[in-house]
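ingest -> fold -> write
write: protein_1
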Amino acid sequence: MPYADLSDVRLHYQLDGDEHLPVLVLSNSLGTNFGMWDPQVPAFTQHFRVLRYDTRGHGQSSVPQGPYTIGQLGGDVIGLLDHLGIGKASFCGLSMGGITGMWLGVNQPQRLDKLVLCNTAAYIGPPENWTNRAAAVERDGVASIAAAVVDKWLTPAYAAQQPALVASLKAMLGASPAAGYAANCLAVRDADLRGEIHRIDLPTLVIAGSGDLPTPPRDGVFLAQTIPGAHYVELDAAHISNLEQVEPFSRVVLDFLAR
């Protein structure tokens, strides 16, 4: 597997698809690795060269000392693009990956073609929730919260039908490095882009899940109403909509990017 050695982090990444196609970056949610995008790769690589990466502190990427900031996470994306010689790309991020996308849209718009923000919010509070979660993980490990967190990732009916998926998500989350997970919790805690996202001047798609508890539809509506010209789509899903509604999610994203 390839790695990119940046200034203060080693990022694990994967490129799939024809090298002559435009690039689409996929950014994962808190507590997952880039394998969360596996179901989208066959459809997306028909039209894009797909760049996935493990956010710092996740998966096989390194775990620099925290806390982290969303600015660091966005800077990692720019560093990875520079490492690979990619001038511009479209960007699709879910949850924490979506917050990274907002930061990029505000601060590095010249590096993006289009922006897709999924199951995310410009601010996810209250801050003490993140402080407490980081402390619990540092004390007891990520596996200690895996069941409670994954319960919010899929709607109850879908989770009951997909026990293997639930088990794999709990395993993925539980395997996250505690220090990296906690450091990213604090990045999300301190991220408040509500007063900045109106500056995003890029074609933007906002995807929400009707059953999403961590970032409910009202958060997606706020994004779509505040980012000029943004398009809003709501799927019948909870927080990890790309896994619960694989084909509709892929179709909505590709339809938007093809416009």
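write: protein_2
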Amino acid sequence: MADTKFEFGLVRAPGHEEATDLEDGDELILIDEALTSDSSRFWPEATYRPGQAQPSFDKQFVRDHLDAVKWNRQPPAPVLPDSVIAKTREKYLEAYRLLTGGQLS
């Protein structure tokens, strides 16, 4: 794993709605998926080369396509071509295989 992110939320205890700091009784919660190809970058260790672009098993392939078609990042997003969807699926399945040793169909 090259990097990852975690997204958290804060559930305020009753009476703490206006507080600016974490108060007793408040609860910090994980609010999104974690350690998947959507939130993490996985690079094959055997081919890692510092200072170079790495082969990856994450959604960077989709981002690269959207950059290539010059999407302005405003809704609506462009429709992804079937080839981009298929290649992204392949990358996710390969990540699963490498991480778990199992196969998904």
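write: annotation protein_2
The chain has one domain: 3-100.
The chain has two helices and four strands.
pipeline exit 0
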